[in-house]
């Protein structure tokens, strides 16, 4: 398969980590999920998932739990369920209407508190408004929004009437929005005049105007007023949210939708090819998202305050800001802005203000906080926190330790959760009341899931060996395909290993059989006949006290095949970093991992190129290291960062 070509040899296993953190006794004693869950689930997986589906309200019970015609799965066939009813009506009817669903915090400091009863009313009004605009069951609705409550309302309104939402990151370009509108054939776009980022209003409506100008298939643009900035207006097409939604009835009788009715499309950008519209459906998705949110974060909805500090335009936001927390009647925090506006303690101020008990964020954010220094969080009361989560990239052991110590007060378990847009929900993660924490390891597949590591022939690797992560059995929240392209679905995920789902990541099993994720196999380096993962070299660099972040790539080399080139961001305390420090860093990697992993070249940079969800775009750094034109940068957060790096690289020795 073209998208994951490298990594023919077994991955070398270089990193050794011996620190261990057993679950706190009180958390273990009261945990939602106990150790026995693994065995019970393994004994009868479909019965296990049927039990989890039973946590939800079904309008019509299913006939069959799983209909598996590889590689196409249907879950809970014959069943009918409404996602919005499960997230809202059911809780209000159970007397929880006054519980806070969201403590919303705008970047400028404005706030909104929204209860379950209020959210239900808002969603019914928005559902009625979408119907008035001509949206019917099965139609696609694009959502291009800032992080405001109306974004959640729009998603749930779609789910309620059976329209399929397609959220596009508010930071994506006109082109990225346009290709997604084309591919999904969206009929309505929900947007806002703008949102607040980095202390100023940023605009959204002009990008929609441009994209929609060439796309007559879009019949209406529904616009939320957030910043009050001037917007161009197309009469007949554009509609203000407050004009149409506010006058609707708060009553909407929801019907059950087929368990396999499409819920949403979320595009993931492949490294080269056109973005893939990952399709998720209704019953199985909600089942696994709801279960994993409850199990991995040990949610106690009466007392917890849960915060996923991520954008809703990332699958993490869909599953763990919206559907997971709401299906469990939890109280969440939702934050509009950036972590350093107006000051670098913004996140910790929010934790203190709302008494956040569980926080979930990406390693990229954690490493940024490391760079800013531990004195920043030290100024806030973070004692409410009881569990911390990580998602999006492998968490370097040193970042894990920092997170646990400086944010978690050396008390909270850290759950490193591995999953993808395609998997819909968490697949591999510790359970905070059961699993011993190992810094850097995602540990075990969750109960009911069959995840393994195999060699290039598809045979399971032994303990202490590296290879490819695969999923052996269908799971409820698995993607149901790529929108409009079943062949590409088969090629991309099911052709590398016969009968196994291949997510494209490298992984290893340690001596205890626990799983460590080693990054995308596309990024694996081949140095003098050894496959070395970028993750392990990056983690070795980050374990040096002067380094906050590191990105490592293999650049073509006539002698060794590939040479290891590293880009590092130094911690605040470390100063500029001269030749002596660079030599020290190279020696530090060699002594942690062995001489084979010693970087040929290390460059100090102020920023690294990242996607909007914080993943390092190593292919762009490879372009720099091999002196090539830069490839596609349309999903990059900050295009300026690449120019700085390229200029610096050109002048470095
Ligand atoms: C949820 C999400 C998926 C890719 C995935 C992997 C990487 C995510 C990770 C992780 C190591 C973790 N990834 N979580 N790698 N440890 N805990 O990120 O979805 O944006 O589709 O990305 O992210 O490479 O294949 P998505």
Descriptive notes:
The longest helix has 17 residues, at 116-132. The chain is built from 19 helices and 30 strands. The chain is globular, with a radius of gyration of 24 Å. Helix 17 links the parallel strand 29 (561-570) and strand 30. It starts with 24 loop residues before the first helix and ends with a helix. It is of the alpha/beta class and 653 residues long. It has two domains: 25-507, Rossmann fold (3-Layer(aba) Sandwich), CATH 3.40.50; 528-651, 2-Layer Sandwich (GMP Synthetase, Chain A, domain 3). The strands form eight sheets. It has an eight-stranded mixed β-sheet with strand order 12-11-8-6-7-14-15-23, with helices on both faces. Strands 5-4-17-16-18-19-20 form a seven-stranded mixed β-sheet, sandwiched between helices. It has a four-stranded antiparallel β-sheet with strand order 21-22-24-25, covered by helices on one side. Bound molecules: ligand 6R9.
Could you give a short description of this structure?
The chain has 653 residues and is an alpha/beta fold. The protein binds ligand 6R9.
Question: In the CATH hierarchy, what is the class of the largest domain?
Answer: Alpha Beta
Indicate the radius of gyration in whole angstroms.
Answer: 24 Å
Instruction: Tell me the structural class.
Output: alpha/beta
In the predicted model, the low-confidence regions spanning at least 5 consecutive residues are 1-8
Mean pLDDT: 94
What kind of sheet is the major sheet? Answer: 8 strands, mixed
Helix content: 25-40%
With helices defined by DSSP (H or I, 4 residues minimum), what is the helix count? 19
Shape: globular
Number of domains: 2
What strand line-up does the widest sheet have?
12-11-8-6-7-14-15-23
Which band does the percent of strand residues land in?
A: 15-25%
């Amino acid at each position: 398969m073209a998208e994951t070509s490298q990594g023919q040899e077994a991955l070398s296993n270089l990193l050794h980590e011996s620190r261990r953190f057993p679950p706190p006794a009180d958390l273990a004693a009261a945990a939602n999920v106990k150790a026995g869950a693994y065995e019970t689930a393994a004994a009868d997986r479909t019965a296990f998932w049927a039990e989890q589906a039973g946590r939800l309200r079904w309008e019509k019970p299913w006939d069959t739990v799983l209909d598996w015609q590889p590689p196409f799965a249907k879950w809970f066939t014959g069943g009918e369920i409404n996602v919005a009813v499960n997230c809202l009506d059911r809780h209000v009817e159970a007397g929880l209407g006054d519980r806070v669903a969201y403590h919303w915090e705008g970047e400028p400091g404005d706030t909104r508190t929204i209860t379950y009863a209020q959210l239900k009313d808002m969603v019914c009004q928005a559902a009625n408004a979408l119907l008035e605009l001509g949206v019917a069951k099965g139609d696609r609705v694009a959502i291009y929004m800032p992080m405001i409550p109306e974004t959640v309302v729009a998603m749930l309104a779609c789910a309620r009437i059976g329209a399929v939402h397609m959220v596009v990151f508010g930071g994506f370009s006109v082109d990225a929005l346009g290709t997604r509108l084309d591919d999904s054939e969206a009929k309505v776009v929900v947007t806002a005049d703008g949102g607040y980022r980095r202390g100023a209003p940023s605009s959204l409506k002009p990008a929609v105007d441009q994209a929609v100008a060439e796309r007559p298939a879009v019949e209406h643009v529904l616009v939320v007023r957030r910043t009050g900035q001037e917007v161009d207006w197309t009469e007949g097409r554009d509609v203000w949210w407050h004009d149409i939604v506010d006058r609707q009835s708060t009553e909407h009788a929801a019907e059950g939708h087929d368990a396999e009715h499409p819920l949403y499309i979320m595009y993931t950008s492949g490294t080269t090819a056109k973005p893939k519209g990952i399709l998720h459906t209704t019953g199985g998705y909600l089942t696994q998202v709801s279960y994993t949110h409850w199990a991995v974060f040990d949610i106690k909805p009466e007392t917890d305050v849960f915060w996923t500090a991520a954008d809703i335009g990332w699958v993490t936001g869909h599953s763990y800001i919206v559907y997971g927390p709401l299906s469990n009647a939890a109280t969440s925090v939702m934050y509009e802005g950036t972590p350093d506006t107006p000051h670098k303690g913004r996140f910790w101020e929010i934790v203190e203000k709302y008494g956040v008990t569980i926080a979930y964020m990406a390693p990229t954010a954690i490493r940024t906080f490391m760079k800013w220094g531990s004195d920043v969080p030290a100024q806030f009361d973070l004692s409410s926190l009881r569990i911390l989560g990580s998602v999006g990239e492998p968490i370097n052991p040193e970042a894990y330790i920092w997170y646990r110590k400086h944010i978690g007060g050396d008390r909270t378990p850290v759950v490193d959760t591995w999953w993808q847009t395609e998997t819909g929900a968490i697949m591999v993660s510790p359970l905070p009341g059961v699993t011993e924490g190992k810094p850097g390891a995602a540990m075990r597949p969750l109960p009911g899931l069959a995840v393994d590591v195999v060699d290039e022939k598809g045979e399971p690797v032994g303990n202490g060996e590296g290879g490819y992560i695969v999923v052996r059995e269908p799971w409820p929240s698995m993607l149901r395909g790529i929108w409009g392209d079943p062949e590409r679905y088969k090629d991309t995920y099911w052709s590398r290993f016969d009968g196994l789902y291949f997510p494209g990541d490298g992984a290893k099993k340690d001596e205890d059989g626990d799983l460590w994720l080693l990054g995308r196999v596309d990024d694996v380096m081949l140095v003098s006949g050894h496959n070395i993962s970028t993750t392990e070299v990056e983690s070795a660099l980050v374990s040096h006290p002067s380094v906050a972040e590191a990105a490592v790539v293999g650049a073509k080399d006539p002698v060794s095949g590939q040479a290891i080139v590293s880009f590092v961001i130094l911690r605040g305390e470390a100063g500029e970093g001269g030749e002596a420090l660079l030599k020290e860093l190279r020696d530090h990697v060699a002594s942690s991992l062995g001489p084979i992993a010693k970087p040929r070249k290390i460059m100090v940079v102020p920023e690294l190129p990242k996607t909007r969800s914080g993943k390092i775009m190593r292919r762009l750094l490879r372009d720099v290291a091999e002196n090539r034109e830069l490839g596609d940068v349309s999903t990059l957060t900050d295009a300026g960062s690449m120019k700085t790096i390229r200029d610096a690289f050109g002048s470095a020795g």
